Amino acid sequence: MANKMNQKPTAASAAEIHDQEVRQEERVEKSVSKVSDFFERNSKLIWGIVIAAIVVGAAILCYQKFYLQPKKAEGQAQMFPAETSFKAGNYDLALNGDGNNLGFAQVIDQYGAKAGRAVYFYAGVCELNLGKYQEALDYLKKYKGKDEILEARALACQGDAYVGLEKYDQALSCYDKAASTADNIFAASYLLKAGVVCEEQGKSDKALEYYKKIREQYPQSMEGYDIDKYISRIESAQEAK
Q1: Which of 100, 198, 202, 216 is the most exposed place for a label (fewest CB within 10 A)?
Q2: Contacts from 199-206 at CB under 8 Å and sequence distance 24+?
């Protein structure tokens, strides 16, 4: 066995190895030649694509740096007086401005989402507080924020607008989504609203489910402290039947 392992390649086997290496080199040369021919035949097209990609990339960069970013900063600066009015509870002024300072509606007209997605939330809440429920929905549905708490609040506000329009099924759907989006102490208020809507629809059993969920999952919330009276009222009414 050792003798066989130590045997040197014969002249025939060496020739075969050499032929294989030569054939391999030929195949490589052919592949390189094909690639080279392709680039030679299509050099104008390839360079055109490369240059076009560079031009498009440069255009996008310039657009973002010299237009989008300044426009965004300008829009956010214009929102400041409206935000101040909003925090003070002056919703008409916050929404419509005073002729000198822009309201959220004018900021949206001039800057759109460049001023930040929150502008749609603010405008929607203003319309909601002014009793313009459909207008509130139009704004709130355009809000697509990344903050889960604010997203949940926007959904709950949509629910409030639907209640104002007496579209209770849609309102209930919004409150459910809001409660599941913000699984924290704020969810209790959305569940309470859902329960009240169910009572409005005469669905006391469903309302009771919402109220008990508050008692079980959010007992330390403000709603949790008073929830027993909601539960007792429904249970007492059911026992009296």
Answers
A1: 100
A2: 199/234, 200/168, 201/168, 204/234, 204/237, 204/238
